[in-house]
Structures are given as C-alpha cells and as structure tokens.
Design brief:
This protein has no helices and eleven strands. The chain is globular. The chain is mostly beta strands. Strands 2, 4, 5, 6, 9, 10 and 11 form a seven-stranded mixed β-sheet that branches. The protein has a four-stranded antiparallel β-sheet with strand order 1-3-8-7, with no helix packed on it. Helices cover about 0% and strands about 55% of the residues. Strand 4 and strand 5 form a beta hairpin.
C-alpha cells in the first residue's frame, strides 16, 4: 500500500493550505486514516483522524482550525489547515491503520508557517 502526500508549502501566519493524501487501496479497508506531524526535535504527534464511519478526532491544538475529510471515490484523504500559526510548522504525514494488522505511512509533506 502506498500513501502519497502533497500540498505542503510556505505560508504566512493566518494563511491556509490543503494537504492531500492519495491512498493506493480502498480507504474503507482501513479502520482509521489520519494525519500526524513532526516538528524538528519533537516526537510525531496526532493531528486528526477519521474512521470508516466518519467519526473525527482532532488534537486540541488544531481543533476549530483544521478539518479532515476524504473523497471515497478517489481514495484520497484531505486536511484543510486554516488560521495557520508558526507553531504549526512541521512535516505532515498521512497514515492508514487497521489495528495491529496493518499500519502505513506516507512520505510526509513540509508545512512552514512564517510569522
């Protein structure tokens, strides 16, 4: 299974981006798909996830600013990032998980927010 993330870039504080993650297999074959991020010198952290039933979960730091969504017909996962802050600067990774059976990561896309 391959996950291809794209859409990162350099944006000013307050700006917006939309990240995309193309999954090479039916998204519904996974229990949960989502986005994580890793800033320099820090551990990878959860940003947002969505289950097969459409339940979403967000970290407190992005709640109300970021929106996770999916296009089932395209097997693509999205993350809309609004009201970006410098502390949102990180490499963003998409993930597809089926419990202990399967866990896949995309290659990451860099998001840099300037103040």
């Amino acid at each position: 299974v391959q996950l291809q993330a794209s859409g990162g870039g350099l944006v000013q504080a307050g700006g917006s981006l939309r990240l995309s993650c193309a999954v090479s297999r039916n998204i519904f074959s996974f229990n949960v798909v989502g986005w994580y991020r890793q800033a320099p010198g820090q551990e990878r952290e959860l940003v947002a996830t969505i289950t097969t039933t459409g339940n979403t979960n967000y970290s407190d730091s992005v709640k109300g600013r970021f929106t996770i969504s999916r296009d089932i017909s395209k097997n693509t996962l999205y993350l809309r990032l609004n009201s970006l802050k410098p502390e949102d600067t990180a490499v963003y990774y998409c993930n597809a998980n089926r419990g202990f059976i399967e866990n896949f990561w995309g290659q990451g896309t860099q998001v840099t927010v300037s103040s």
